[in-house]
User: What shape does this take?
Amino acid sequence: MINDNKSPINHTLHPFPTNFPYLAFYMLRKIVLISGLVATTIWFGFTIQNPSQNPIQNPQNTSAQHNSFYHRLADSAYTLTLQNVTYDPKYTVIPYPNGDVPKDKGVCTDVIIRAYRKLGIDLQKEVHQDMIKNFQLYPKNWGQKQPDKNIDHRRVPNLMTFFSRFGTTLKTSPETQLYKPGDIVCWKLTGGATHIGLVSNSLSFDGERYMIIHNIGAGQVLEDCLFSFPIIGHYRYSK
Assistant: This one.
């Protein structure tokens, strides 16, 4: 920069000019600079205190309500772990809609069904209504000729079909950050049996992944078992 003390915009040698025109220009320039600094400070402070107004700070603000549903679903599933439930896979005739086996009985699918029902979603009804209209799209592993409202929603392959049709199908890769609270995960167990569970709000002891709420035989429990078996399905579903 040219250091010229005759220039009204250069005050390196004379920070407080005594000539009136220069002084007036200097003071006006200071007022503009200070006003701009104050305005910038107020704006910056407002955006920090109100991240919902700043899309960079909060890029997911438009889906906050949607995300809240899945955290509530995970909380709903966690309450089931406080109940004493015996694993019992036998066929049971139940009411329709909102039917359930005895509260002290259940299998892995009942964890999912009960968690959703606490939030007002009846998977018994949802699955049955879709199977009435689209029975041919569902697995035929059990030799059925028509839908059965007592058992269809309690079978993992049927729930996988339903969630793939009406929910979001997600990746099944071993990347822990892909599995969020409220997600539904399905596994293939030794011997070919299928299993299902729900991702909780609780992290594992090493903080690397969310724990799973499921019933694989020991009741409705919270367990660090996300990658204990091969994952064959990963979904997110809400109405």
Q: What stands out?
A: Residues 212 and 226 are 6 Å apart (CA to CA). The longest strand covers residues 194-203. The helical segments are 20-49, 64-80, 108-117, 123-134, 156-166. Residues 20-49 form the longest helix (30 residues).
